[in-house]
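The instructor's notes for this session suggest beginning with a concrete chain rather than abstract definitions. Hand out the sequence below and ask the class to guess, before any prediction is shown, which regions might be ordered.
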Amino acid sequence: MRDLVGGHFGGHPDPSEFGVVVDADHLVTEGVTEFCVFDEAYKLEWDDEKVTVLAHLDHPELDDYPALWVKSYGDGAVCYCSLGHTPEAFENESFRTLLRNAVRWASADNRP
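After discussion, reveal the predicted structure:
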């Protein structure tokens, strides 16, 4: 599973409000800038050489962990997002935009 996803879960503090910082210009992050969300912030282990990190957490209790990455897998593509554990996260327009963009990107025939 780690090979498919590009990393794995390592725990999380209690849900809280924190920032999400967009690191890369990509189809998945199109139209999204830094935003705040109330959610669980995941501590992750990831394969830095196999994934392209698109956004990271700005959380007062955690080190620098990615919130969003993409990678190739066989003939397909994977977009991993560690957000989306609370109703408040799904009320956040920036988060919903990331999800819409990720589905479009992962299902596109013209993916770079």
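Then share the key points. Residues 31 and 85 are 22 Å apart (CA to CA). Strands lie at 7-9, 16-22, 35-39, 44-46, 52-58, 66-73, 76-81.
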